[in-house]
Amino acid sequence: MKNQEFAEILQQKCDWSAFKNKNFLISGATGLIGKALLDLLCYLNKSLSLNIRLTLISRNINEAAYDNDYIKVFQHDVNFPLDGKFSEAADFVIHAASNTHPNLYAGRPIETITTNVLGNLNLLQYASKNPSCRFLFLSSVEVYGNTEKPLPGAFTEKDFGYIDCNTLRAGYPEAKRLSEALCQAFRSEKNIQVLIARLARSYGPGLRPDDSKVLSQFIRNAKNHEDIVLKSQGKQVFSYLYSLDAACAILYLLLKGQDGEAYNVAGKESDISLCQLAELIAAMCGSRVIFAQAESLEKKGFSPVQNALLNTEKIKLLGWESKVSLAEGLKRTLELN
Questions:
Q1: Cα radius of gyration (the chain)
Q2: Whole-Å CA distances, 241 to 103, 227, 294, 328
Q3: Whether the Cβ atoms of residue 312 and residue 241 lie closer than 8 Å to each other
Q4: N or C: at which end does the chain have fewer Cβ atoms within 10 angstroms?
Q5: Which helix (H) or strand (E) holds 182?
């Protein structure tokens, strides 16, 4: 990402100096959102001299090799307890580790569930040892499930649809739902502060080559000057979120979010149907939209949800707002990915 993008974040109405000399413990720092979060924290350190100290948990130590005096990396699987791993208490704990694309939901369903639920349990147990710690769980728009009838508007934090738990694909949204409930259990029983960020479908620079999300496939097609391949009629309507906007929202919630609350996070001007999204990206790269049949593994990972728009009024009341529209975010992603 470019420094100009990070400079935009500093314009948010937020006292970033509140992070001065604070310790962060972050899981999933090599993922799309985790990497954006780490880059933003490093930028705040450099530009504002905040002396933020970052401890990262990663299963793959090679992917988390950062040459920075403020960063410590521990090779560890969050499915296992953190007992004795870290001597210094964290002021902020963020659980961002998760499988996040359909092929993994279908190909590694057990891991998809346990990384969210057991990972969340282990990090909450660690956080509960420091009464002043604030814990944030990265949840998902998928917790809202599917609605039998179209909503009059976007999902608010109090709306919920149906999830058929007796399916393979339910592992991801149900794990997110259970993890949110686990946050509330620890808040009640262990008296720790918890926050939940329900992120829209996210994208941005640094997409992995194996990322099977539909938008990620569209972006790869565009980068390779290939046709944009749509594997459905494309009538599904979703909200989207640029990765750096997501990172900013996470930090914003750690400082200004109300203990125990969940907040929707989505980009401005980001509500669009899948077909319209395909056409938008095709127009950006001079390609066409074509239709094809999904493979068996892909079908198993597909979400049945047709409407996943997010109402973001709650987080806007705290003062946060998205800086990057969908069109601008796609442009930046295509330039930088």
A1: 19
A2: 21, 24, 25, 11
A3: no
A4: C
A5: helix 171-190
Q: Which two tokens stand for residue 152?
A: 């009059």
Residue 281 CA to residue 122 CA, distance in Å, equals 40
Question: What is the dihedral sign for C-alpha 303, 305, 306, 312?
Answer: negative
Label residue 168 left, alpha or beta by phi (over 0 means left) and psi (-120 to 50 means alpha).
Answer: alpha
pLDDT, one tens digit for every residue, the chain (337 residues): 667 888 888 888 889 999 999 999 999 988 999 999 999 999 999 999 999 999 999 887 776 667 678 899 888 999 999 987 777 789 999 999 998 888 888 889 999 999 999 999 999 999 999 989 999 999 999 999 988 776 777 999 999 889 999 999 899 999 999 999 999 999 999 999 999 999 999 999 887 777 878 888 888 888 888 888 887 778 889 999 999 999 999 999 999 999 999 999 999 999 999 999 999 999 998 888 887 666 666 656 566 777 889 999 999 999 999 999 999 999 999 887 6
Q: Tokens 């710690």 correspond to what residue?
A: 133
| Per-residue tokens: 33 | 């959102």
Q: Which of 69, 27, 72 is nearest to 51 (CA)?
A: 69
Find out whether 23 and 88 touch, Cβ atoms under 8 Å: yes
